[in-house]
Structure prediction request, 180 residues.
Amino acid sequence: RALFGQAELAVLDRRMEDAAAALEDCLDRASSEDVAFRQQINQQLYTVYLHLLRKGIKRRDLEAQDSITIGMSQTAGTTPQEIQTLLCRAEYLERKKDYAGAALCLRNVIRYYGGVEYPISRLQFGDPDRLLKTAQDVMANVRNQLPQQYYDQELQRAHDLMTKTLPSYFSAASPLTPTM
Prediction:
């Protein structure tokens, strides 16, 4: 249980890689009979995996997205988490250009969760590619308008980070609260 406490501290400190490693180790050490504790670990681990997936999307790291979505599927404990995991996995497979695998994930969502209402972000309606392009154009325009002063490098890094973060807002792993 001390390891679980260390993992929770890592989450609070936003050290998600450390938190994931500690929680995975904690899950390995926990007795299979301690169902409540294993469920608590899985709840924390799912949240950590979701955060790491957003980071992987931002970095365009397909290998990380693969292992993280697999981890999410092993720790999802509620129906919305299971749906979100399948949607995230489908998006990863689509980015990998494995369209048959992506279609299989989406068919499973329809087959097993077709009758379940699942809220999604408003940004996923309409034409997300056009909206993302518009947001990137706005960010490029903002960069041109930034003052050339003392903190030019810092402003450039902040701008670049915000621009790289945009795609995660249009994914199933979006940090936005689902509204529709």
